[in-house]
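INTERNAL AUDIT FORM
Audit reference: QA-55
Scope: verify that the stored structure record matches its stored sequence.
Auditor: D.O.
Record contents follow.
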Amino acid sequence: MDLADRVFKLHETLRTSRAAVSRAQLQERLECSRATVARVIGQLRDFFGAPIEYDRRAGGYHYAPAEEGPWELPGLWFNASELHALLAAHQLLANAQPGLLEGDLAPLRGRIERLLQARGIGGGDVARRVRILRMAARRTDPEHFRAVAGAVLSRKRLRLLYHGRARDAQTQRVVSPQRLTHYRDNWYLDAWDHERKALRSFSVDRIRAARPLAQAAREIPDARLDEYFATAYGIFAGRPRNTAVLRFTPEAARWVADEAWHPAQQGRFDGDGCYILEIPYADARELVRDILRHGPEVTVVAPSTLREQVAARLREALARYG
């Protein structure tokens, strides 16, 4: 911990403590000697003007009360761990959507790296030491993404030219954007479709044109959005109508028991060491694909319709191998 970190930690300690803090307690929290504690107190008091007082009766330090409220460090302060976390978050954002806000965030990244280097820590290793693997990410046009994100935040309607994969056709849509969802390395727009008068989810990579309109977006309550988009399985929307009951072998259970497939899932081990997972769903397409990933390590117990769908896909796959 360097001097800047100790100044920050001393401030946080005095700001949040209800009673005076002794020098011994400060030595423990700042992980330093008695002499270093005195130097840090002097730095915070003399350089930053902190109203530090010593209470002889309580045998400790505290901030003097002020009418304008608790004293705060001037400017924006981060300790070394927080600076590294910010750089890691920048790296994550850059990988989640390459080019998104890069021009705006680059100066901030440069400033954080200079702060770290000035303190002898160095931040240039984050890009090399934090590795983010993207799987099955689809290419998204940066201009379309910015138009969609801007409309979501400014609460304006959008005119979309959208190419749907299911029907392999392009359609014009006027939508009220509600939320952007990042799911399995791809972006989706949850919106109110004014022509269909219903909530719809649009894959951002299938947007061929996006033009913001002057009209304000129709507001949909969060509870209704959550009910429609967040209760079904995966990216498919709608209220769950079925519950899948899956039985995983003891070998697969070691991993599956720690996985979150759905917010409302229920899981338990049976007497044979197998893991029983119950998942609500509305549309089985994505669920079938996730079940197939586990091959012979999982059995669909119920419902029978889902069991047959998975069995049919397995037969089709086996047929391709003769």
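Auditor finding: record pair retrieved intact. The radius of gyration is 28 Å.
Action required: none
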